[in-house]
């Protein structure tokens, strides 16, 4: 039996380097490996916890879909869909919510940090928190468990969500017998949290991202904004603690990376290091960027691809959904 791999990205902003390195790149690697079944999706209902403007929702969803496709996702082998096109996920989400202890969700990082922000700002603890934010991990558990997922490639910030999915699966299994596979997360240890322009985690929420498909001029400017220390050009630098180097190696060949490592040791100015980073990244992204723009100019084609994917997804999960309902006592 092939192992099932699954991951999703929510359309709450433009795809950035952190998304690419933490989630998309490893997921594409797994999609090429014949020993896995892969399911990748646009987590639009997760996006709805934040995005309440219909035009923005549409544009951002197409952006996420086009990013996967432009980066080379093969939709003949991987199932690629929009979460909202697979209604069984939401049926399961309700079922799982009846097995999710509220205390577990109170401890979810995303919710907890909103509560803490409110407390620090002297507001009511739940101010600005909608129930979608609170139950977010349950919907994510449904995404994962419905596909009998074994491996979930994500960035480090999502580990807790995968653990919550495991907890919920275990408590369901305990009640009804072995039903759900217990998922595991797959983390890129080296670059598990890519820093943004201000040194904090690169995230749409912090406005510190480098969008992956940014056009060359803006890309160069953004790279120039990456924070560096005040060491002089001729001073030796530690490549392994440099954000510039860690980005460089994601886009450069192994030979280029070794040369750059030596340059760091013997001393390279930050300006020059940034220029080299721009150069490898820009040439790596040239083709994907063209494909991305082309895809976005024909969104009907994207819709078609996503709908085909949703059909395949439903074919795979509907029998399992029936089994789950039978176990609960809903079907005879
Ligand atoms: P954001 O924090 O920008 O809202 P998402 O939560 O939509 O990003 O993340 C989508 C995927 O990209 C997740 O698997 C997440 O772990 C990964 N990811 C996001 N930011 C980073 C980062 N700075 N470094 C590594 N992975 C990241
Ligand atoms: N919560 C994830 C994020 O913010 C997106 C997501 C939704 C997801 N459902 C998923 C990731 C299922 C992996 C598996 O990045």
Structure overview:
This protein has 13 helices and five strands. 56% of the residues lie in helices and 8% in strands. It is mainly alpha-helical. Helix 3 (54-70) packs across helix 12, helix 4 crosses helix 7 (131-146) and helix 10 packs across helix 12 (270-296). The longest helix is centred in the last third of the chain and has 30 residues, at 299-328. The protein folds into two domains: 3-100 and 135-194 and 298-327, 3-Layer(aba) Sandwich (Rossmann fold); 213-293, Tyrosyl-Transfer RNA Synthetase (Orthogonal Bundle), CATH 1.10.240.10. It has helices at 17-32, 44-47, 54-70, 88-97, 102-106, 109-120, 131-146, 159-176, 216-224, 243-251, 254-266, 270-296, 299-328, and strands at 3-9, 36-42, 78-82, 151-153, 184-186. The strands form two sheets. It has a three-stranded parallel sheet. The protein has a two-stranded parallel ribbon with strand order 4-5. The site of tryptophan has 14 residues, from strand 1 and helix 7.
